[in-house]
């Protein structure tokens, strides 16, 4: 399964700046064949879109704490609006990772999002949404048990498009040492 692009995987976790630059478009979206096919198939009843996934959450998690991780499915040109919207939902959230689905997504297709966090539990690890060409947030509730070790913990967000694998987005989350 191809891996989506991620942002700041090895960088220390610090709050994001207000002007975060999104990654470059995927290779298929920059090819002349995709642009020609999109232009030629413009008369199709169901248009296709390049879908970007952006993950927002806290920079650090304490053991015994539950946090909310927001995943936005959106068009690449709406990245700045999604960033502002995520800060409105949770003022302490930062951009953890962003990437693209590895194929164009038809409007009306079902996107399945599955979040896996090492050394933590996710309340509902599989969420679905119908892609309609607009930004759509989904929230995962992550609980870090008291016994979790401190340090970087890998997280994987898998995406499926109408039941077919659409890529993975991998990024770390920092678990603080236990207190007390």
Task: Please give a handful of descriptors for the protein shown.
Immunoglobulin-like; five-stranded mixed sheet; 12 strands; elongated
What does this structure look like?
The chain has 180 residues and is mainly beta. The protein is built from three helices and twelve strands. The strands form three sheets. It has a five-stranded antiparallel β-sheet with strand order 5-2-4-10-8, covered by helices on one side. The protein has a five-stranded mixed β-sheet with strand order 3-12-11-7-9, with no helix packed on it. A two-stranded antiparallel ribbon has the order 1-6. A hairpin with a 2-residue loop joins strand 11 and strand 12 (164-175).
How is the secondary structure organized here?
Elements: H1 27-30, H2 32-40, E1 48-49, E2 52-57, E3 60-61, E4 66-74, H3 79-89, E5 94-100, E6 105-106, E7 110-117, E8 121-122, E9 126-130, E10 136-143, E11 151-161, E12 164-175
Parallel strand pairs: 3-12
Antiparallel strand pairs: 1-6, 2-4, 2-5, 4-10, 7-9, 7-11, 8-10, 11-12
